[in-house]
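#struct-pred

JT: dropping the chains for the assembly here, can someone run the whole complex?
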Amino acid sequence: MRTDLCDAVSAILKIYAITYLEWNENMKLTDHESAMLAGEEGPARKYAMEQVVNVGQFFDAEDCVEIAQVHLMADPESLGDECVSFLEGLAELPEEERLVRAPTITDPRGVDLQAYKRLKQTEEQANLERRSIAAFRALGVMMTDTCINYQTIMPPVLGEHLAFGDTGSSIYANSVMGARTNFEGGPSALAAALTGRTPRYGFHLDEVRKGGTHFEVDHRPVDLSEWGALGAVVGRQMQSYWEVPVISGIDSPPTSDELKHFGAALASFGSTPLFHMTGITPEAPDLQTVFNGPTASVPVATPLTRAEVTALRDSYWPADDRLDVVVFAAPQLSLMEMRMLAGLLKGRRVNDAVTLIATTSPEIKSASDRMGLTELIEASGGIVLEGVCFYQMYAREIGEANGWKRLMSNSAKIVNILGGYGYEPMLASMAQCVDSAVAGKIIGGAS
Amino acid sequence: MSQQLFQGHVGIGPRVTAEALVASDNFSARYDLDRIKGIFSRQQHKLCGQSYVGKVLILNAAKGGVASAWMLREMTARNMAPAALILNFANPIMAQGASFANLPMIDRFDGDITEFVKTGDKVTVDPAKGTVEIL
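RK: done, full complex below.
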């Protein structure tokens, strides 16, 4: 093991040991957990168990819960050299001390190594990506590189405890599947992977999952951008992580992609990991059940009108029609969305002044290749990227390198994020985005 | 004399004293910051354009995605982090990130902490006690 990394890891472990000694007063640990914490299974599991205890104490967890799956978010932009070096330190430990103890899969990467030069990403960025991939592989992490794991890898099951690490996949697993997870950022997802458990607090507990705020929708969104905008309107009203919105008034089941865009936007605008939709999601058969009491205890509903949803979308509409880049991402596209995009682009040509990018998972890219969808999109001048998501791939740097400022997307989540990355993002339907990409300028207008 | 000591939930990280930077807005490292320059970069944020480096950052609630959990440590390693993060409501991501970065953090006060402390106040943050004190 390299001396500098070894020193760095030991220094960090010492800091956590001190913190742990001050705090380990309340949480009940099993003999196995105590052994890991005492360092009997090596420094990686000791560090990881200390992370579990630190966070558990902060949220008054009584004990730990074993988890069935880990979804790990760790793009190189978030990691930086510091955190990649930390992972490399863990990766150099002996195999029995470093391998993960629960099935662990990854969120999108930051660099598509087949396509990064085309996007003017740098060798430095690609190298950080290569280093982090090598470290994760050494830990036994499966590089699925997807945020739509609930559609493509292993859908969670009602009541299953998880450590999911993307807000979109977490809210989908909690809400649509009825599985149980908090938002587990990279370091704590890694701690969950190395120990096989997470602190039992937050959305692992029945009482935290009951409804909090009630919204009544008077319309059905007509496309994915509207489902996202509806999620954004609800998300903006959330006061904290712990507020659970209940949506009533959706009269028949939305598709998985519609719930995906709704949930991803709600989690992005609201930082909220659970919603209930009465008659649709598994823990909300009716209002009485989801609010856990008699009819009288159901809070008065805040109405959500179509006007509010379109107003949110229109609030991003610019004064001129300039357009630089059209992005379909966040979440990565399902096979159905890839088909929809290919259909809209068929026989047309993206204007030379505009770049059109679609990002999807390696599984869906492979399926799209087989089914001729990738070819249709790329023949029209679009770019299909796999295993990445636009906002996680050095969005600021590639925007500056390529001169992208005005960005159009049908994802409310990405529009929310990229405002902080130097873009002028706007939200429109997939059809409107494609029409604009072909025209080389924004087509249509605010509703 | 107005109250100078504010009690929150027991927090994470070491004790620290520094100048406060306060707003009633929410906080996400990925959505709100230019982490290279060390300033708030999101146009809609009340602190847009201001440097947070070395400040006790006092805001309302943790928002946004999961990236902040890695980012706090990466920022700390480059000496481009706030001195402490004080929120009315943290979320798991900020707690995990503060733990990983060993960055002082406290939340859940008796009342709105963004109303109690003003930008420019010198404050001591003591996570083991869960207190913020104006000096």
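JT: nice. Chain A touches chain B through 49 residues (CB under 8 Å). The first helix of chain A runs from residue 3 to 23.
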